[in-house]
Amino acid sequence: MDVTIRKIQKQEYPLLDNFLYEAIFIPEGIEPPPKNIISSPELQIYVKHFGESKDDWGLVAEVGGKIIGAVWVRIMNDYGHIDDETPSLAISLYKEYRGFSIGTAMMKEILTLLKSHGYSRVSLSVQKANYATKMYLKIGFEIVKENEEEYIMVYYL
């Protein structure tokens, strides 16, 4: 599979809504929530006015001219918030493209991008049952906090 990872373009920012929905972890046997769940304020902070802050950075993965994944960061008071200098990360791939190391490649690209722009760390929140937890640990994220359902993880750049 020929995958291109590149910076997201302004006209592609609306696609982040789709990828935000795709990023919602749905455990086996659980009915997916309605698409309009992403209009809730606690989820809109990931995408609303994306690109307007100097701390908004995003990449997309493309196969055959189709955008199939996105990874983006911004400093926001989300589930993975550490402090006001640490961007929080969101990543999402369409289901049929998972398991091909595309997510790992996107993560490595965004970490390189953040380091080149002077950030010292990046954080994320992930549900403990999410298979992506293993990928984050393998890449080098560390668990810094946890509650019953989630880990808050940090990668030091």
TrEMBL record:
<protein>
    <submittedName>
        <fullName>GNAT family N-acetyltransferase</fullName>
    </submittedName>
</protein>
<feature type="domain" description="N-acetyltransferase">
    <location>
        <begin position="3"/>
        <end position="157"/>
    </location>
</feature>
<dbReference type="InterPro" id="IPR000182">
    <property type="entry name" value="GNAT_dom"/>
</dbReference>
<dbReference type="InterPro" id="IPR016181">
    <property type="entry name" value="Acyl_CoA_acyltransferase"/>
</dbReference>
<dbReference type="GO" id="GO:0016747">
    <property type="term" value="F:acyltransferase activity, transferring groups other than amino-acyl groups"/>
</dbReference>
<dbReference type="Pfam" id="PF00583">
    <property type="entry name" value="Acetyltransf_1"/>
</dbReference>
